[in-house]
Amino acid sequence: AIDPRLSEFLTRCREEEPEIEVRLSEVSFSEQLRGLRSGDFSIGFAHTNSVGSGIVAEAIWHTPIVAALPARHPLLVHKEVPLDELTRFPLIMVAPQMCEGYFRELTKLLHAQVHEPNVIEHATSLDVMLTLVAAGYGIGFSSFARVATCRHPNIVIRPLAVGSAVITTFLLRPDSEHPCFLLERFMARLHPLSDE
Fold first, then answer.
1. pLDDT at 160
2. pLDDT tens, residue by residue, 13-45
3. What is the pLDDT at residue 90?
4. What percentage of residues in the chain have a pLDDT greater than 70?
5. Residue 39 needs a FRET pair 20 to 30 A away by CA distance; which of 96, 136, 157, 164 works?
6. For residue 93, is pLDDT > 60?
7. DSSP-assigned states of every residue in 22-60
8. At what angle do helices 4-16 and 181-194 cross, to 10 degrees?
9. Which residues are within 8 A (CB) of 189 and not within 5 positions of it... i.e. 6 or more apart?
């Protein structure tokens, strides 16, 4: 659930309360849920709200999903890429074990189309996906927030021609009636960013 807004948020935390230690751990979604339930993690971020009992998922950020196309791709005639046309071409998806929530949401979006998606590769990172796209192997996907910082001369970013092509980042936390005072302040600081 990496988003440039997370860096802004962490910067504000360090400026306003430098005495509070914040640690980030990158784990799979299932490990994150286990850690939240066991108390190993205080909060988490994910691209799904399918968290089961004992966890609260609160939407904090929304960002469009965009297509990363190789330069000179035939779909570049469109300012916004139609999903039904996009599914006719080879696609490069993120690996489900790397970005479970994101993969699930993108799969739902693609499988709602007339044509079955032609997924030729599951990339283990954004870097690998963009490398394969730049080399012309297929079309990739990312959130606009993530790919906006990645510039490559052989890749063109286009929005998708569907309003529902949005990925939501959720703040996850254990479902307790009274989160600790520090956690409440932490979450309160996060809320102004969710409106941006």
1. 93
2. 888 888 888 888 888 888 999 999 998 998 898
3. 96
4. 93
5. 96
6. yes
7. -------HHHHHHHHHHTS-S-EEES-----TTEEEEEE
8. 130
9. 9, 12, 13, 16
- Comparing CA positions, the residue from 119, 115, 62 lying closest to residue 95 is 119
Q: What radius of gyration do the chain's Cα atoms show?
A: 18
The pLDDT tens digits of the residues spanning 53-66 come to: 999 999 988 889 89
Long-range contacts, stretch 49-57, CB < 8 angstroms, 24+ apart: 49/168, 49/170, 50/101, 50/104, 51/170, 51/172, 53/175, 54/174, 54/175, 55/172, 55/173, 55/174, 55/175, 56/172, 56/173, 56/174, 56/175, 57/170, 57/171, 57/172
> What mean pLDDT is reported for the chain?
85
CB atoms under 10 Å from CB of 53, counted, come to 6
Between strands 139-143 and 166-174, the pairing is: unpaired
Is 163 in contact with 122 (CB distance < 8 Å)?
A: no
Both tokens of 70, joined, read: 């190789």
Q: Tell whether the torsion through CA atoms of 174, 177, 182 and 184 is positive or negative.
A: positive
